[in-house]
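Quick one: structure for this chain?
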Amino acid sequence: MAWKLSRTLGAVAAFAAAFGVSGPGLAQTQTEANQLGEDDFLLLQPVVGGYKLTADVRGYQTDQGICLDLADIIQSLDLPVRLDKKSRRATGWLFAEDQTITIDRSSNTVQIVNRGAKPIGDAIYDTPEGWCVDTKALSAWTGVEFKPDLYNSVVKLVTDREMPFMQAIERRSRAARLRPKTQSFDLAQYPHAEMEYKLWRTPSVDVVAQAGYESDRTRGNRRVAKLEAYAAGEIGKASYFARVATDNDLKPDSLRLRAYRHDADGKLLGPLKATQVAVGDVQSLSGQLTGESAVGRGAFISNQPLAHRARFAETSLRGVLPAGWDAELYRNGQLIAFQGDNGDGRYEFLDIDLFYGRNELEVVLYGPQGQIRRETSSQPVGLENIEPGKTYYWAGILQDDRDLIDLRRNRIAGPHEWRWGGGVERGIDKRTSIGVGLQSFWYNGRRRNYAETTLWRTVGPVMMEFSGAHEFGGGSIAQVNALGQVGKINFGAHVAKGIGNFQSEQALDGLRHEIGAQIDMSFKLGSLSIPLQLSGRRAELRDGGKVDNLSVRTALTTRVMAIAAEFDHESRSVPGPGGDFERNKLRLLANSRIFGLRLRGNAAFDLSGPDKGFEYARLTAEKRLTERSDLAAEVEYLAREDATRFSLGYSRYFDRFALRTDASVATNGAVGAHVSVAFSFGPDPLSGGVRFSGSKLARSGQAAVTVFRDDNGDGVRSAGEELLPEVQIEAGMRGAGTLTDDKGQAIVDDLRPFIPVLVGIDESTLEDPFLAPAIKGVVVVPRPGIAARIELPVAPSGEVEGVLLNLAGLEIGGVELELIDRAGRTVGTAYSEFDGFFLFQRVPYGEYRLRVARDSARTLGAEQSLAGALVVNRDSDVARLGAVKLAPARGSIAAAGDDD
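Got it. Here's what it folds into:
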């Protein structure tokens, strides 16, 4: 990820340079250096020959070229140079002890060996991080040519001499020959927190309340007040959520309720081995050619993986959207869709196109108080089929678009009929799987029943789908779909043939035949890569009508800006008068951060038809005033009302709630003023009382963590063992930013529901350097509104050392060794040095055994097992094993010789 980010930053810099654009981080002078901020530098990776150094170097583009951060150069090349910013001097030697260097900023001179002092001139720039040295001067001082390549975000080091850091690379390369190329991160090897479902767990509740005054010419003056509450807890050994919302008169308008269970291991309902079961307000799956995904009150069961995709080349995302929030959808980092609050408490992104290979989808939610939430999912196509012999099923029944308890006085128009369906999929081999399904729903004035079947087959870089559907008492349809990749171009194509008068939600009514294609590619604009997606289809109906669709999408993404444009064309020609129809629409989405402002905008234009012209436009600007306050301004234009609305809001964050006030005025005379408060409350897993929080407790998981000093090494907190304050808790690959209190306890919020996460300790926050976490962490599978209770032991640590001998009894280096605890977990790895010496540091007190890593043992023809049990404790905090000799693998020639 860091490599991709630095590459993107480099592309932005090269684009700016090509067009003569310079920002504060791309062009600076000596007098402007103190104006540079943290985001002005570019991350460049040093490259020497065929090797890439791991420590990136910060670089700036100046009016004279490129300069590099001197401290980063010293660290990356491991130079024995001391940089003292207080005395404004740098002293040491370069690559050899007799090649001394002294940089004196006070006298503006540099002296290398005994060649006399030379003026520095304009070679060094001051930055917030330290000194930035021009690459030409740096090359002259060190004797190594520094050649920056902004497009690839690297700096190449060219030299004919064998430098010490190059020799170190060669040594590591030789030692790495026995090392595995990849090391997987498997959560299964860590202890898991037990979270049994209970008959009752008090729910956590998220509340958004708003009150205000509004006035317009249509409805006059009025006071408004509305409330939304979202609760999540457990009842009857099942999770549940409940959402209640009122109208503007504070009268109940909607009540949704769902009871459900999720289990990624498929251990629900005994022999059914279900992964998800739900009753209440549920969502059904779509068919390939029949029914669409729907929501309503009913029941659902499935053993499919929780992130399983229902359709071949499309997917849909639904989720909870709190009152006043907006949602943006990104696919592989590209902004592709936006949805504002429509009052139903949901976001819906339907029929999202997928491409062959990786499809990383991210929904970014923006709250009215400046909150930002992210929900990510992965939808690979062609990379994974159903395992051979594995069977997936689903079944569901629901009443379309009806809440479990419907409080709406004015129901949404529609038949709201019951629909049901089910399907089975089975893997045949690694490249082939089949599926069958049944669906029944109300469509075009009557109930329709369908059966469909699908065959999926991967052929090289192409994923094929052959599907067919039949309506009982009606027509049929057959379709062939293909998705593939050639080079960096993704493509797709489909052909469909209707037989009889086939009608469904997934196909055009009365279709005779249809053909379509799509392509996803990118092209270069200067140094920027611009994605481009094209899709189109042509359909002919049985009555002679024709339907044409064309869609073009593109985007521009830089370090500070994301802009997306979408053009849609649809035309229909139907025999008879008034049958022709044409629509052309352009949508623009933008998201930017500039001058400390976060800007979000969207606009739509009708390019044809009776409503031709501007449809709407909205621009939102948010400014962080302090760590706890934001200012937001918004301008919205609605063409059909011929009105422009201006609003200004101020948000203030507290530990337990967030407060927002806003005022608006429109050109049609409408005015308004509102105040809103958002907070969450729920059971306090530490004190047993009730706690209030600014985090969304009901929509996310929690972990109540206790950190203690495990003096007896049993991993369980015993009486008298010390609780450790001021220890930072980590959740996953990020630091949670939560420190334990004086009782050694902390609560970690905002954990993504049902996504396993490793909760552990940031070792750098342990004050005692001889203390170390006894375990790397505990895996938690968060559930909404529920707190998992875990204990993290910290133990005094010691060391394990020895000398490794090969099968011939000689010292051997570069062998990976593992230290295993009593539970069979790997607590540490180390590599033997050239003389066979190995060392495990910060080993918590306990009993262990030593073994050779599997790949190293296979390469050497040796047994994995080495020394017997070893103990690190207070009486022996350094376990000195002495010489440890490899044993030949059973069945090897060496082993046979030993037996003789």
